[in-house]
Amino acid sequence: MNTNKESKSSQQNRLFPDNFLWGASTSHFQIEGNRFEINNRLSDWSQWTQDPTHVADQTNADHACEFVERYASDLDLITTLNLNAFRLSLNWAAICPEPSTANELKINREMIDFYRRVLQTAKNKNIKIFVTLFHFCLPQWLAEEGGWTNEKTAYEFARFAKIAAQELGDLVDFWQTLNEPLSYAYESYINGIWPPGFKNEHTKCFRVIRNQLIGHAAAYKAIHEIENSAQVSYAVHWRSFIPRNMNNPLDLFVSYCRNKIFNHLFLMAVQSGQLPCPFPFSLFKELKNLAGPIADLKDSADFLGINYYTREICEFSSSAPFIPLGIRSDFRIMPVNALGWESCPATLLRLLTVDTRPYHKNSKGKERPIYITENGYGTRFAANLSSGDWSLRDEDRGEYLHSHLLSVYQAIKAGVNIKGYLHWSLLDNFEWAEGLQIRFGLVRIAYPSQERTLRDSARLYSEIAGSNSLINYKL
Ligand code: FCB
Known about the structure:
Layout: H1 8-12, E1 21-25, H2 28-31, H3 35-40, H4 44-48, H5 67-80, E2 85-89, H6 92-95, H7 109-124, E3 128-134, H8 140-143, H9 151-168, E4 174-179, H10 181-189, H11 202-226, E5 231-243, H12 249-272, E6 274-275, H13 285-288, E7 292-293, E8 304-314, H14 345-355, E9 370-374, E10 379-380, H15 395-413, E11 418-424, E12 438-439, E13 443-446, E14 451-454, H16 456-467
Helix pairs in contact: 5-7, 9-11, 10-11, 14-15, 15-16
Bound molecules: beta-D-fucopyranose.
């Protein structure tokens, strides 16, 4: 890292805009260890993780970070780190443990009270709150009816959004309806590593995307009907797809398709109000029939919420020529994290300044502020480690954080309206199919004791956030 060698004047230029949001992101299933949910196996994920073969290190999220009991001290950590923003998701399965009827809303008031306490605690500390409504976990009663392949889920989701806005809206600053709809559709219906575990079910996958769009649009509307000035969007997972061989037209074609589908499909739909059916999806009649206009979808994003971790090198594979979401290559150039994800801050700069530009304004020309709602670096340390020095000197994470913030800074200097950055994650947590071993936390968790310890990266981040600048880089 050559920061210390830079001239003082160039360092002084590295101030972020006033009121920039510095935050950390989480999601409920990954941190909560919610006894009510776990004891009753209320969600598809709490069911799925009962089978240890579904998780690489055979752990589960039954306890996770015990956030339900420890939220107050975890929110203290936000303040300790000089942060002013926090992102969490609501546990839909625990708030709506059974279906409502036409005459009766079935809501678990204890869970609403719990979230009111969490959000009020944050508000008392002047922490801005981002709330996600769907972060990969469905109530089991909906999963049993086909989950997002069933349009009913979209309308139940809108009902849930309305409940959330009515009960909690006064304490929420930013809403994200869905987290990473394309990652969800891909991992659950193509890759098969998340519930319901379908592999290469392209029609189902496309139906899931369509129903997520219907649900997003209806939720956006429901929240705005309650609070007209609410800031509502969703979180896109952006992954730039690079052809392994620039001179191979098939590799170019695969990366073009993956980019069009994974990165642009949802954004284009929200921009235009129509679900497009790009090639090669358009080869299939049943997929073409699913494309087209969706009610209330057009312009249903007040800001852009971008989750970015890595780029992906991809290549054509003759063994799977028609996988529209493509095949990942084993080829890597840049340094990688424990998941094999390349660190590539230049990609972040490019996506902010160039690739997402068509979505920086809505169709009427109104500017959308941009928030990076996830970005982070995963390491691997077994779940049963307890006290000791392991994993605290996390120079790689510090380097990743600093280099990606430099891209954010450069994009702001280039005129992009970025108003906040939320690092994934505040705490080590349950990393889905990878389990507890993959750790993204600024704060380490020793799971056997639940002890929290600040990593070096947390100290670095707190200096950056506290000075609102990249000046103070030192590890
Ligand atoms: C994102 C997810 C988040 C976490 C990080 C590492 O795609 O939104 O829950 O798993 O990846």
